[in-house]
Amino acid sequence: MVNEIYAQTKESMDKSLEALKRDYGTLRTGKVNPAILDNITIDYYGTQTALSQVATILSPDATTINISPWEKNLVKDIEQAIAAANIGVNPNNNGESVQLFFPPMTVDQRKESAKGAKGMTDNAKVAIRNIRKSANDKIKKLNKDKEINDDESKTAQDEIQKITDSYGLKADDTFKAKEAEILKV
Question: Whole-structure pTM over 0.85, yes or no?
């Protein structure tokens, strides 16, 4: 029973780290990442649809993203959606596709992006601690229901804390790598 709680805890914490890495994808680094467009949707025949579901998104070089819709009539909608998303660049429409030309990042922009990464990391660590609380609550309930004794409860809570500490360190390591990537000129 306790081993199941450990497994669930690790699985949930892994998901928190995966979510953190996905969040990092929305940050701008030295090279533009098409993932910056992940949260942009357009109205596609009455349904809000992700940009990646209606167009090919490519990054031919470090400062350009090219969006080629599968249906040419979507070019104007894509251009408007990107403008409304306020991602820090104006879309350029050539009639067949939309190009985004990102200027090289300034030192201040890099620091701001690193600060955003730090905030995302802190949120992930809060989620990890919430998972720990949930796991500890399950263990306390087992103890209260007399399924495990006090010593087993204490040992299990110590193990949950070790798991939490290791995932906190993984989040910090992930942040350090992302920060180095952002700040590298």
Answer: no
Instruction: Using alpha carbons, list the distances in angstroms from residue 67 to 15, 39, 53, 72, 129.
Output: 30, 15, 11, 11, 39
CA distances from 17 to 53, 114, 125 (A): 25, 17, 9
Q: Are 15 and 23 in contact (CB under 8 A)?
A: no
For residues 86 and 170, what is the distance between their CA atoms, to the nearest angstrom? Answer: 32
Classify domain 34-101 by CATH architecture: 2-Layer Sandwich (3.30)
Which residue, among 162, 157, 171, has the nearest Cα to 127 in the 3D structure? 171
Backbone angles phi, psi at 147, to 5 degrees: -80, -25
CATH class, range 2-25+106-183:
mainly alpha
Q: Which residues of the chain have pLDDT under 50?
A: none
